[in-house]
Structure formats: C-alpha cells, structure tokens
Amino acid sequence: MSRPRPAGVPILRLGDVLVTGLLNELDDRSAVAFTDELTERITSENARGVLIDISRLEIIDSFVARTLMELTTMSRLLGARVIVAGMRPAVAITLVELGLQLTGVETALNAEQGMTALGWRRTPAPSEGGPDDAGQ
Asked: Which residue ranges does the record assign to the STAS domain (predicted)?
C-alpha cells in the first residue's frame, strides 16, 4: 500500500527538476511528511534539482526555517540542488529579526529565476514567430 501524499503540498516533476511550494498552513506533522515525500521523490526520480516556491508564505517561524535548511542539506546529500524562490520582504525581515540564517540555502527572487538557475530556459512556442514564419 502506498503512502498518501501530504495534502496541500503538491510536488510536480519538470524533466529532472521537482517543483513544489510551501503555504502558511504548514504544521509540524505536514512538514515532516513533506520532507519525507520530497526526499523519496528526489531519489526515486533521479532529480538533480528542486525548486521550492515560498511566494505564498506570508510568515515564517523557526520551525519552517529549520525545515528549509534540513531539506536543502538532505537534498544536497542526495545529489540535488535546491533553490528557494519568491521570498517576500516580510519573511526576510522576520528571519533577520529572529536571528535565523538559512545557511546553505540558495534563493531566487521568483520561480522563473529559480528555474533558470537550475538550467531551464524558456523557449518560444512555435506560434510566437521565428525563422519558419518568414516568407509566408
């Protein structure tokens, strides 16, 4: 019997990168389940990168900060690079005020920049024009 995925924390696969996000409703139990699921998926899907979008996270506490640091360390040990994207200014201010440092955690301003850092490039769709549209 397979374990159910934690509710509210989807993990998507885009090639060899896993994309997920955190919400304010992350409690201790769901954080542990999320960590377990993500590390299992890194291994089972040979992920070389993980993007964690926290743009919807309005507040952060020491538990969530520690969870992000532990996820980053575990992922690196499993051979995947983690980028945390979309940190709001209020979250950054809170981290500084609490004296919490996300040691070893790479960040990006938004998910698009995070995916670019992980090696993804946006390519125009065929309908956006290009050399094949010339002369028609």
From this structure: 7-118
pLDDT in tens, 20-79: 988 767 777 888 888 899 999 999 999 999 999 999 888 888 888 888 888 889 999 999
Compute the distance between CA of residue 80 and CA of residue 105 in angstroms, rounded to an integer. Answer: 12
Q: How many independent structural domains does the chain possess?
A: 1
In DSSP notation, 33-84 reads HHHHHHHHHHHHTT-SEEEEE-TT-----HHHHHHHHHHHHHHHHTT-EEEE
**Which CATH number belongs to the domain containing residue 17 in this structure?**
3.30.750.24
- Is residue 2 one of the residues assigned to a domain? no
pTM exceeding the 0.90 threshold for the entire prediction: no
Provide the residue count of the chain. 136
Under 8 Å between Cβ of 79 and 72: no
